[in-house]
Amino acid sequence: MTIPAFYPIGTPGRPWGEAEVATWRSRQAVQRSYEADVLGRVDALRARLDVSEYGRLDVPPDSYPLFAIRSRSWRDELPCVLVTGGVHGYETSGVHGALQFVERHAASYDGRANLVVVPCVSPWAYERVHRWNAAALDPNRSFRRDSPVPESAALMRLVAPFRDRVLVHVDLHETTDSDESEFRPALAARDGAAYEPGEVPDGFYLVDDSEHPQPAFQQAIIAAVAKVTHIAPADAKGEIIGSPMVAPGVIEYALTRLGLCASITDAPYKTTTEVYPDSPRATPEQCNAAQATAVCSAIDFALAHHAGTPAAR
């Protein structure tokens, strides 16, 4: 059933224009610091990893440097691993899980893979704990040629020189209660559509690529993460967030058609993680650990199963 939902901006049934977007943006207050939470930790990594500024996000009066962390022992013959977090700025463990992976586990892949980690793709949204960027656009529906979203465009430019050499890409996300209380109602209001309520799954799950599925890869990640936090069950319809559950804790999306971040390379192994931080059964520490564990298990599987990598020889 479709239920009209009140949203305090705009006219029901009419998409937002510039005035509504400006009103929405004026109500987005800074709630945390990108500089304190992210940049300080990135800076501390410079002693053992290469840190480079790959772009700058200007949202006057604010300006945010965008950083990528790379293996210092980069070798052209090694496969590349891409880890992205904070495409949706409000998804906290995506950012901090990426940083935890680098801090605690990156060294174990020296000489085995070239790592590229982008811990916070959307710093403006990170500070405001929001899904959208400053123009009320979703970066994770905007990874396509001539993207109107600067956060997405900057990441694609970074990846372009090595996109064909990426073996595995793990994009770190969360599904939260605020998806239903704020973000999906806001989306319906922005687009002049009726809000159709959904069900937030309790637990961790993965999104595979429906065009190029890798079920064994996804299940290896699920098995590893299940030791850290609980895996989301299907709902009464056998679905997770409206998509059929194709295996325990796994659904599939058409990544390229939807313009999702996990589509930006031709990696044979790709996945999008979804952690549920609002569960009474999970702590913030578990959520961060689940993200880091997902990255490690994804890399380990890919290196072990892909012909030509050091681990497979």
Automatic annotation (TrEMBL):
It comes from the Bacteria. InterPro entries: AstE_AspA_cat (IPR055438). It holds the Pfam family AstE_AspA_cat. Its cofactor is Zn(2+). Residues 79-178 form the Succinylglutamate desuccinylase/Aspartoacylase catalytic domain. Keywords: Hydrolase, Metal-binding, Zinc. It comes from Rhodanobacter umsongensis. This is M14 family metallocarboxypeptidase.
